[in-house]
Design goal:
By secondary structure, the protein is mainly alpha-helical. It has six helices and no strands. This is DUF892 family protein.
Length: 166
């Protein structure tokens, strides 16, 4: 497997994982309306990236699956409903706030990892003069950078109140 195909594979897995983690965090923190809705929106970017990476992988003989199946999400609907009730019961308690900060930290680090892979892919595409691969990285990487800026901003906004609350 070449370095480019390895990078495509790793980035594909990272985007799939980030989408799953964003959707999970959105459900876990449903009472935090701003977080919930933005997390759902930016999860769609990772889903689109996964689809586009699967297409690019096929061109190189890789069999990368598309986005995660919605049926798998439906299978965990009962668990999600239970989590939602627990989150609503916790409300803005400090424990739920600390959990939100931890989720934001995890999401930020996952997006940062993906960002590095996008940069590596773009550099490799330039080196081998692969315009299609460069176009893919050039269109997807800015969205990953926005995911990172969003998580970082949320951490900056929430940390003072949540970490100093008694």
């Amino acid at each position: 497997m070449s370095g480019i195909t390895t990078t495509l594979n790793e980035l594909h897995d990272g985007e799939r994982d980030l989408e799953r983690d964003l959707l999970t965090a959105a459900e876990r923190h449903r009472p935090e309306h701003e977080f919930h809705h933005v997390a759902l929106d930016v999860a769609r970017w990772s889903r689109e990236h996964t689809e586009r990476l699967a297409d690019a992988g096929r061109e190189r003989g890789l069999d990368l699956p598309g986005p995660r199946d919605d049926a798998a999400s439906a299978a965990s609907a009962a668990f999600t409903a239970l989590r939602e009730r627990a989150a609503a019961a916790l409300g803005r308690r400090s424990e739920s706030g600390l959990l939100l900060l931890n989720d934001l930290r995890h999401l930020h680090l996952a997006a940062a990892g993906n960002s590095l892979y996008w940069e590596m892919l773009a550099q490799a595409a330039q080196a081998v003069r692969d315009e299609r691969l460069l176009a893919l990285a050039s269109s997807c990487h800015p969205q990953t950078l926005r995911q990172m800026r969003w998580t970082n901003t949320m951490i900056k906004v929430l940390s003072p109140q949540l970490l100093t609350a008694e």
